[in-house]
Amino acid sequence: SPPLSASLSSSSSLTSSRDRCRRCQQLVYCTERIGPVKDALYHKLCFKCLKCDRQLDFKTYFTNSIDLNDKEIYCQSHVPRSGKGVFSTENIHIQNVMKAPKLNVMQKLDDRHTGIHLDSHSVSIVHAMKAQQMFQQGREKVSAIHKFPALPPDMIRAREEVRRAQKSLEEKQRQEEDQLFMKFRNARELEEKKIEQEVTDEWEKRLQMLTAKYEDDLQRKKDKTIEPELTLRFSKEKAELERNMTLKRDKKREMARKQLMEKEQETTHSLVSKFSKEMITLIQEKELAVL
Fold first, then answer.
1. Minimal CA–CA distance to 30: which of 18, 15, 12, 54?
2. pLDDT band per the 50, 70, 90 thresholds, residue 150
3. How many other β-carbons are positioned within 10 Å of the β-carbon of residue 184?
4. Which of 27, 51, 188, 244 could lock 78 by a disulfide, CB 3.0 to 4.6 Å apart?
5. How confident is the model at residue 52, as a pLDDT?
6. Whether pLDDT at 33 is above 60
């Protein structure tokens, strides 16, 4: 039968492929472990940015919030970021957290040109877009037919003012978008760490109790021939405990994921509506200023 010291050593942590370092694939022991980060463990010296090998810790590492299948870690300089541009569900990858309704002003304008049905809300958006269309198109067709001179200076200035105002608003909205998704990412990572710590603490406590019972049984039994039987029973109980703790962790993760998704969906929907209203208000104000 295996010696007691070897049996106890093998039961000091959850033994599976997850106990290997993601970087070097060697075993990771408690004293040198960092993680789990996205279900992966690292040696302290292997916890580095994938791109530049910069040494990281829990305060300086980042994960890819764009591609959820990316399990790697990065420094702040090399973490993948969403592209710049006008706010849209594709731009900020809202599809990963919700099926948000499309309230974008330009989408409504495209719907008008393709003959899609317009409700009363859509009509108000189209009305608000008239000034923007006038400034952007510059009445080229009218000028070509009637040989009018170039756009008057006040119209040119008004058009440029609208463009500057739109660009400024888009930049402001993009910053709000980045802040929102940074908040989402931090909340998910904190919840993951909390669950992992809770399950690990419970696992270690229950494993310690199981090991103490095994040692006590060995000492109380005078017949050494039953030691293999006790060792086999201990191994089975330990394996069963590991399965139960894994199921418990997965259940906690799924529950937390659903709760966070509902909260993210509600927050993102509010932000989409807010951005749409801001753009409509801006266009209406500029329209009134020049008409």
1. 12
2. low
3. 19
4. 51
5. 93
6. yes
Contact 126, 109 (CB under 8 A): yes
Q: What pLDDT shows up at residue 112? A: 41
What is 8-76 written as a DSSP string? HHHTSS--SGGGBBTTT--B--GGGEEEEETTEEEEGGG-B-TTT--B--TTT-EE-SS-TT---EE-T
Instruction: Give the domains, in start order, of the chain with CATH numbers.
Output: 14-81 (2.10.110.10), 85-290 (no CATH)
Which 8-state DSSP code applies to residue 94? G
**Residue 180 is encoded by which pair of tokens?**
């929102």
Return the SS3 of 223: coil
Q: Amino acid identity of 16?
A: S
Strands 62-63 and 40-43: unpaired
Sign of CA dihedral 12, 16, 18, 24: positive
Q: State residue 137's pLDDT score.
A: 55
